[in-house]
Amino acid sequence: MELGVALALVFFCVLLLASVAIAALLIRHCLAALRRPDADPEARPVVVMVPRHHHHSTQYELALSSEAPPPVTKQQQQQAPAADKEKKQAAAPRRLTWREVEALTGGFDESAVVGRGGSSTVYLAKLRDGAPVAVKVHRWCGGERRLRAFRQELDLLRRLRHPHIVALLAYSDDHEEGGALVLEYLAGGTLADRLHGVGAPLTWPQRMRIVHDVACALEHLHDAGAPPVVHGDVSASNVLLDGRGLGARLCDLGSACEGFSAAVAPTRAAVGSPGYADPFFLRTGIVSKKSDVYSFGVLLLEAVTGMPAAGDQHGTTENLAPRILPRLRQQGVAGLVDGRLGDGYDHEEAGDVARIAVECLAAQPGLRPAMAQVRAAIAEKAARSIAKSDYYGHHHIQLSKLLELT
């Protein structure tokens, strides 16, 4: 009997001690939670959407602040939700069915075709509210290379967001023999059309604005991400212009190479367009970020002289760079500036930009500057014209309108 009482007392003491220990542990966790910064609204870190002005366009980046944010104005309260909503939507383009693509293009109506490529056709389509979009329809017909190019472009456009790279709004990739990219529509056509087509020539400030925009896009491809991206087909035909201030977007990433800063296998390398292709690549099969720099150098010459990159100027078949470079090195830009400009250009800027082009066109890739240096040089040397350019911001289609595609 005494043994039973003793065991009961021991059990009771153990239970009591365990209860005390559990209570102490709970109290300790509660006190720790009360001391954490996120329990104090005045002291916790605040995630703030901070506007960042970059190359005359406004982007948003995340910033951490250890203090409460400053008072928000009524205008900021109205603008921030819309900007935040657009950013979230832009991060995830909508996936369409092939039937939706057919409906969007009117059953692939030939009258809606605005462009053709080797394996793609571009249709001008409209959303329900009338907003225009460009639908790039790929047909690979069993061709592995064409399918790979489509997948490459789709993958990069889904991840890349930059004011001077054409924006992907939606896509379709579940069809056996084709795919589609729904892109923002730019009413200004291509840079090649504006430089060499009919109509009023681009002004000198407009040209400087455009080449600076393209330089920004290439700098972003080369340096902003990990791994870096080589565009592989920089040309005036792959630069789209908006219909208002002639802001530029780089397009056509189907030839891009990702993850290589030195070289890639020749069978997977980009070859570039006639007149723009890097001669070092053509000799060796080695492509790098400096291949894009060479192509951009040709683009600079094209903007300064108004001459096409791939010959056919005054009956000659010689490409622009080898034809012009000797004259530039010997006598500078005198007599080479596009005659359609008359005296409506900055002579000092023209000489400086031509010298930047010469550096980009160095025979050895190692002697060419990086795109970040090229972009900075253009921003400095052509600053007056860039500031004067008739530029009212970038035309962005509201991505929320894609919800009305069906």
What is the mean pLDDT? 79
The fraction of residues in strands falls at 15-25%
Stretches where pLDDT falls below 50 for ≥5 residues? Answer: 34-70, 261-265, 391-406
Encode the helix/strand succession as letters: HEEHEHEEEHEEHHEEEEHHHHHH
Structural class: alpha+beta
Sheet of most strands = 6 strands, mixed
Total strands: the figure is 12
Q: For this entry, what is the oligomeric state of its chains?
A: single chain
Order of strands, widest sheet: 3-7-8-6-5-4
Helix content: 40-55%
Our measurement of the CA-to-CA distance between the termini, rounded to an integer number of angstroms, reads: 84 Å
Give the overall shape. elongated
Put simply, the count of helices is 12
Radius of gyration equals 29 Å
Q: Explain this structure to me?
A:
This protein is of the alpha+beta class and 406 residues long. It is 41% helix and 15% strand. The chain has helices at 2-35, 74-90, 98-104, 144-159, 191-196, 204-224, 279-284, 289-305, 320-331, 347-360, 371-381, 383-388; strands spanning 46-54, 57-65, 94-95, 113-116, 120-126, 132-139, 168-172, 178-184, 229-230, 239-241, 248-250, 257-258. The chain has a six-stranded mixed beta sheet, with helices on both faces. Strands 1-2 form a two-stranded antiparallel sheet. The longest helix has 34 residues, at 2-35. The protein is elongated, with a radius of gyration of 29 Å. Mean pLDDT is 79; it is low at 34-70, 261-265 and 391-406. Residues 108-397 form the Protein kinase domain. Keywords: ATP-binding, Nucleotide-binding. Residues 59-93 are annotated as: Disordered. InterPro entries: Kinase-like_dom_sf (IPR011009), Prot_kinase_dom (IPR000719), Protein_kinase_ATP_BS (IPR017441), Tyr_kinase_AS (IPR008266). It comes from Urochloa decumbens.
